[in-house]
């Protein structure tokens, strides 16, 4: 699990970017470049595929390596804290927030509105089907940890009321039109000369469609996120907002 019980750490603390810089220089730079630009032996760490990795996925790759590539497993050589520090430094290279080490049992907030909003998020509103926080939830939509550092309240409200107005890079939708006219929508994942791969709207399946067997494949201007927020009561909207602002 991403969340570790580490002595001396508070319930929520940042992994060490400074410590990660030294570790990265010692172990990672030779393959991935000083700025994560990539080398002959290692892929770039600052391109969109690398940025789209969830925190857990990034930590897993460093810990366990990646079969069929030159990426070795560092879990036997580096401590959990050192791996977290390297991952946090990579996030820094990507211009993204560092990893957070969270106590999963700590309440998200002591605000009753935020706690009620968390119940809505994970329950009747269904946000957790697509979005994650604290390493739980879906992956069709962006991870929401550190959300308030990326969006002010006006931008957050726009994202909730009109999801298609501004779609986060890497989370766009593809439409696949089949021979019988059926249209399948999902999060774009991979593409090649022969096929396109999308993640189903419920996030449970990765689907591959061969281009010669479908009528059309096109980008969608419509977000996969439904306008559920607009249909909530005013009280429920305030509760969900309070929860999202606590992340």
Number of domains: 3
Distance between the termini: 20 Å
Q: Strand share of the residues?
A: 15-25%
CATH level 1 name of the largest domain: Mainly Alpha
CATH superfamily of the largest domain: Cytochrome c-like domain
CATH domain topology of the largest domain: Cytochrome Bc1 Complex, Chain D, domain 2
Secondary structure: number of strands: 9
**Overall helicity:** 25-40%
What is the 3D form?
A: flat
- CATH architectural designation of the largest domain: Orthogonal Bundle
Mean pLDDT: 86
What does this structure look like?
With 247 residues, the chain is an alpha+beta fold. It has three domains: 12-102, Cytochrome Bc1 Complex, Chain D, domain 2 (Orthogonal Bundle); 112-166 and 226-245; 173-220, SH3 type barrels (Roll). Helix content is 30%, strand content 16%. The chain is built from eight helices and nine strands. The strands form three sheets. A five-stranded antiparallel β-sheet has the order 8-7-6-5-9, with no helix packed on it. Strands 1-2 form a two-stranded antiparallel sheet. Strands 3-4 form a two-stranded antiparallel ribbon. Strand 5 and strand 6 form a beta hairpin. The two termini are 20 Å apart.
